[in-house]
Amino acid sequence: MTAARYKSDESRFADDAGVCDVSVLLPAEFTLQSGEILSRPEIRLRIHGDPARPVVVAAGGISAGRAVADWRDEKGWWPEFVCPGGAVDLDKFCVVGFDFLPNAGETARTITSNDQARALAFALSAAKIGRIRAFVGASYGGMAALAFAAAFAGRIEKLCIVSAADRAHPAATALRGVQRRIVDFALRCGAAEEGVSLARQLAMITYRTPEEFAARFSQAAGEAAGDPYDVCNYLIARGEAYRVAPERFVTLSDSIDRHAVDAAKIQTPSLFIASKSDRLVPAEDIARLAGAVANGRYFEFDSLYGHDAFLKDAAIFGPSLKSFIEEKAP
């Protein structure tokens, strides 16, 4: 994989597919809102295509990162959405993905969506990327995008938010709080991996809908009490497949609940997209935010997939988003 330690005075390079990974060192004085200092002060970008084209930044949930589109043997987290001819068209735009802070092994514990936005802004400048055509953010990536638009209005032409609002809903915070306490308890018991797996299993229940589970899984019981049902086997498999350090899980989960953006500071023309069945980020919260933003538009759709609709139903909302980011400014 192409990689680089990137400084602003170095030349950019890419492989034959026009893709490169870039690691940007943050300034020594970069301080988090918590007052903490990063022990690994860097942020990683993946640049798809020629940055001379209009640039679209794309960011997803806390388990997503810089691998937005498929590349070589690595599957991106949004390949049906970010691709040639897609909603974010790689034939028209340079697309930038990035890894959320904290980095692996990081000692800083408390990080906000505003910290993510400030680190990204510095990295884009270091990579000689100035004003971007659009920031497309879904779930936690939408929170980072909102923070970016509020803090760096002059650097973004359009804001596209999917399944994210200006603040967390208390019911969602309650669920994530239980997940974090599971992980903390498991750490104290010396079973960190199992704790993260259980927290992920609980999270997966909140990402989808009861209707999808009813259509997807049978209720056939096992031979003995405690034997997993079909839906349990699915959750166990998803939990075991999830590989993240417990400290990083807690930090990013907590970052979601610390998120707070003043809608009045967002002057960028914005499109807000909501799934009616989303229990983590209710459509009502996104509609309220869209109404509070000076140049906000709102698109709502039906989905069987709840919060995960941004991953599963790109074909439904993709055309509206594509039209929005490709339309010419008046």
The share of residues in helices is 25-40%
Contiguous helical run count: 10
Radius of gyration: 20 Å
Shape: globular
Q: Structural class, please? A: alpha/beta
Compute the separation of the termini in Å: 41 Å
Strand content: 15-25%
The overall pLDDT, averaged over residues, is: 92
N-to-C SSE string, H for helix and E for strand: EEEEEEEHEHEHHHHHEHEHH
Outline the biggest β-sheet: 9 strands, mixed
Strand order of the largest sheet: 1-2-3-7-4-8-9-10-11
List the uncertain runs: 1-13
Descriptive notes:
There is one protein chain. This protein is of the alpha/beta class. Helices cover 36% and strands 17% of the residues. It contains ten helices and eleven strands. Strands 1-2-3-7-4-8-9-10-11 form a nine-stranded mixed β-sheet, sandwiched between helices. Strand 10, helix 8 (283-292) and strand 11 form a beta-alpha-beta unit. The longest helix is centred in the middle third of the chain and has 19 residues, at 170-188. Residues 1-13 have low confidence and may be disordered.
